[in-house]
TrEMBL record:
The family this protein is said to belong to: Belongs to the TRAFAC class translation factor GTPase superfamily. Classic translation factor GTPase family. EF-Tu/EF-1A subfamily.
GO CC annotation, single: cytosol
Pfam name, any one: HBS1_N
MF annotations from Gene Ontology: GTP binding; GTPase activity
Annotated GO biological process: cytoplasmic translational termination; regulation of translation
Catalysed reactions, as listed in the record: GTP + H2O = GDP + phosphate + H(+)
Species: Cryoendolithus antarcticus
Protein name: Tr-type G domain-containing protein
Keywords, in A-Z order: Cytoplasm, GTP-binding, Hydrolase, Nucleotide-binding, Protein biosynthesis, Translation regulation
UniProt KW Hydrolase keyword: yes
Biased composition (Basic and acidic residues): 194-207
Gene3D superfamilies: P-loop containing nucleotide triphosphate hydrolases, Translation factors
Primary localization: cytoplasm
Location in the cell: Cytoplasm
Length: 799
């Protein structure tokens, strides 16, 4: 099909992805990389092979002999056989007066395959027999059945071991690839080294426990800028996307068949994914299996705990991300809201001028802020938050005592405080936070909402959702385990916190009681230095970073300072408590009047039955505008109409709420059941007078953390999570947004680019929305929506 052809041809030329190696040039360089043992083998075995060839009346150059020895792992017999085959072929081919181009084994097998298709297997000069038997003496043809792989994506012919480029040449390639990687590192922006598992960071290694099971995005470094795709008509983007979904896999070659002999019992086989060089961009199965983010989604389903559902026994009715299919019949097409008559509010609106009231009462209001707690798994986030709630009186000591008793019975006594936050059975069983927990507490001067994010890498999407709702970040770092955190989620969370727009951060240098010696001031200083460096490199302003030593477990320097003498004397002299650091920042989180005057926007982060009085309630953070009781609203993309029956802020009823506040909105509608069916987590609740656009693609200006190519991605906008594709790399831009290069073939880590992203489901989006692009459980880049694309046409769910 021509469409297949076009999409396949978007692939890079081999020369775009591999350095061209002049083998004559390569040898001297690569020799330098040969081990002494290799060099000794060459020295002793080359004359042996030459003598055997001589006996057969044949000659070969040193280079040819050494290539053969290398490729056959010093096997003299096979090397001689190979060279005899070459020489014999030349003789048969016409006496060798004219130097004939030697075909690679791959080319020969391909030719045989073509010949077989045309009716015969015998090649000119070489009796290849059946391809399976032809490879019988090659080690990888005896791969145990249980681990025989499937060739599941189209492969590019790489420089081969059995012909074409030699292994020596591969060494030269490798050397040049390293040089290229070093060049990339040098030219990338200052953020380059913050790549999440990016090329050079990766080389430093991650701890095995944080290593992804299967790394699926490998991009060989290139020496030169790729040439534009030569044979292609200019792709029509939309078609291109649709066509990319169909099966693009080339039929396996004879070599491929040999390598991937299909097993009669595929379940026993491990799938050997032969990823092509566009990542999995052309793999039609890219979203067929559960991604780490899918796992999260399932975990969300199993542990419905966000927001008030964590603390109240409310029955969640959220669908969508919880996996309940929506009735397509009941869905509206986008853009029909204008034709629908607004819901008659069952509660009369007072038609207040909320912006005016809010501005006039600013001086009398207590500062309030929401903070997200981030950091590596087990660094003590939940325990610290449990401590904060206990010490500020938001949780009673008797509750902690009960948790301690229950936790002790389960052999998890040390998690008693964490259980204040980790309320689901799943979380308590595993000792790991899965979803975002939300709690409120007040200090003498400010009101706070805690969003406790999971530290585990599988739950990063939940962390993104939580951080998107926060004003402040609290980064919890185990003072004794900084390294594990920096290799793991400490680094990733910091980057994501910036990516979603957080500007202020308090670093709780935790578990100081467990330091050796306890409360070691030098340890605090060195950890602080490292973390401050990470934060400033990620884009946090020095003035917006506060570092506090503390112990969540015993409460030192959390709500109250520790003893002013002894081991903790230095703390009281040189540091503030965690709470006072938060209070400082809470005072500076006032909502701008500009965002108050915008149209109402609230991304729905939970949907639940609050009570029989409130059969459907939603919660989330108001990102723009104001809302008041009685106000008609529209939920996009389904265009469902409803009106506001009641509003809660921090579990207390209020008459109105404004941008920046975390709220629960109790809704009413003419058909509640229809509303329940059609509203999902990630939807946008909007003012009916100006609902948000719903699109199928958008342009984002992003910073890439890993090399970015066109291909399947997961798009995260706050709590919204959609499958999609980076369809075109439009241009590389500088920090000021100026064009550096149009239509790059790849966006290297640390560079900024304008990229077109197409989504597979309806996306309610605004220009300026923060976007995080992930794939295969890794964060590829983040930025903001700089342009909305085509209007979504189809069922609102996009399913
Ligand atoms: N010594 C000491 N141990 C602590 C401290 N804070 C937490 N811990 C212990 O560290 C372990 C992990 O604590 P959690 O609070 O569950 O860690 P977390 O960061 O919330 O973990 P996730 O929710 O899975 O990301 C538990 O055994 C805690 O008792 C502390 O200040 N000092």
């Amino acid at each position: 099909m021509s469409g297949h052809r076009r999409v396949k041809d978007i692939d890079y030329d081999e020369e775009d992805l591999y350095d061209e190696v002049n083998e004559d040039d390569a040898e001297p360089d690569t020799q330098a990389e040969l081990t002494p043992e290799d060099q000794a083998n060459f020295a002793t075995l080359t004359p042996v092979v030459r003598a055997e060839l001589h006996e057969a009346g044949l000659q070969a150059s040193d280079r040819e002999i050494q290539d053969a020895l290398w490729n056959y792992y010093w096997d003299v017999g096979k090397s001689v056989g190979y060279l005899r085959g070459l020489r014999g072929k030349k003789v048969n081919g016409g006496g060798g007066a004219k130097k004939e181009k030697v075909k690679s084994k791959f080319e020969e097998v391909e030719e045989e395959r073509a010949r077989k298709a045309a009716g015969g297997w015998t090649s000119a000069g070489l009796d290849l027999g059946q391809p399976e038997s032809w490879f019988h003496d090659v080690t990888w043809s005896h791969v145990p059945e249980a681990i025989v792989g499937d060739l599941i994506t189209p492969t590019k012919r790489r420089p081969s071991m059995l012909g074409g480029s030699s292994k020596l040449a591969k060494l030269a390639e490798e050397r040049k690839r390293k040089a290229e990687a070093a060049k990339v590192a040098a030219t990338a922006s200052s953020l380059d080294h913050l790549t999440l598992d990016g090329t050079h960071e990766q080389s430093k290694g991650r701890s095995p426990d944080t290593q992804p099971a299967a790394k699926t995005r490998n991009y060989p470094a290139r020496r030169k800028e790729p040439s534009p795709p030569p044979k292609l008509p200019e792709p029509e983007p939309e078609q291109e996307v649709k066509e990319a979904i169909s099966d693009l896999r080339a039929p396996p070659t004879a070599f491929g068949h040999t390598l991937s002999r299909s097993s009669r019992n595929p379940d026993q086989r491990q799938t050997l994914q032969v990823h092509n060089l566009l990542g999995s961009s052309t793999s039609p199965d890219a979203f067929s299996g559960p991604s780490p983010d899918d796992i999260v989604t399932r975990a969300q389903g199993a542990s419905r705990s966000l927001n008030n559902t964590k603390s109240k026994p409310q029955k969640s009715i959220a669908n969508g991300v919880n996996g309940l299919p929506k009735s397509v019949d009941a869905l509206h097409l986008n853009g029909t809201s204008a034709e629908q008559s607004p819901v008659q509010p069952k509660v009369k609106s007072k038609n207040m001028d909320v912006t005016k009231i809010w501005t006039e009462t600013a001086a009398t209001r207590r500062p309030a802020a929401a903070f997200v707690v981030i950091g590596h798994v087990d660094h003590g986030k939940s325990t610290l938050m449990g401590r904060l709630l206990l010490d500020t009186g938001a949780v009673h000591q008797r509750d902690i005592d009960r948790f301690r008793k229950e936790a002790t019975e389960q052999g998890k006594a040390s998690f008693a405080l964490a259980w204040v936050m980790d309320t689901s059975a799943d979380e308590r069983e595993r000792g790991v936070t899965v979803d975002i927990a939300q709690h409120h507490f007040s200090t003498d001067t400010a009101d706070f909402t805690i969003l406790d994010a999971p530290g585990h890498r599988d739950f990063v999407p939940n962390m993104i959702g939580g951080a998107s709702m926060a004003d402040i970040g609290v980064l919890v770092v185990d003072a004794n385990q900084l390294e594990s955190g920096l290799k793991g989620q400490t680094r990733e969370h910091v980057l994501l916190a910036r990516a979603v727009g957080l500007e202020r951060i308090v670093v709780a240098v935790n578990k100081m009681d467990g330091a050796v010696p306890a409360w070691d001031q030098h340890l605090f200083r060195s950890v602080s230095e490292e973390v401050r460096k990470l934060l400033t490199e990620t884009g946090f302003d020095r003035d917006n970073i506060k570092l506090v030593p503390c112990s969540g477990l015993n409460g030192d320097n959390v709500a109250t300072p520790p003893a002013a003498s002894g081991l903790t004397a230095w703390v009281t002299q040189s540091s503030q408590t965690l709470i006072s650091a938060l209070e400082d920042f809470a005072g500076s989180t006032a909502t701008s009047s500009e965002s108050l005057n915008n149209h109402l926007r609230l991304q729905i982060t939970d949907i639940f039955h609050a009570s029989s009085q409130h059969p459907i309630s939603v919660s989330g953070r108001i990102s723009a505008g104001t809302v008041q009781i009685g106000e008609p609203i529209t939920i996009m993309p389904s265009s469902e109409l409803a009106s506001i029956k009641a509003i809660d802020v921090a579990d207390s009823p209020v008459e109105y709420a404004v941008a920046g506040q975390l709220v629960t909105l109790h809704l009413t509608a003419d058909d509640i059941e229809q509303l329940e069916r059609n509203v999902r987590i990630g939807d946008m609740l909007c003012s009916s007078s100006s609902p948000i656009e719903v699109v199928s693609d958008f342009t984002t200006t992003l910073l890439s953390y890993q090399p970015l190519l066109p291909g399947p991605v997961e798009v995260h906008i706050g709590r919204l999570q959609l499958p999609g594709r980076t369809t075109s790399l439009l241009e590389l831009v500088d920090a000021a947004g100026g064009t550096v290069k149009r239509k790059p073939r790849i966006v290297k880590a640390g560079l900024r680019a304008k990229v077109k992203v197409t989504v597979d489901r309806a996306l309610p989006g605004d220009e300026g929305d923060r976007v995080v692009i992930r794939a295969d459980g890794e964060t590829l880049g983040s930025g903001t929506i700089s342009g909305l694309g085509e209007r979504w046409i189809g069922a609102a769910s996009g399913n």
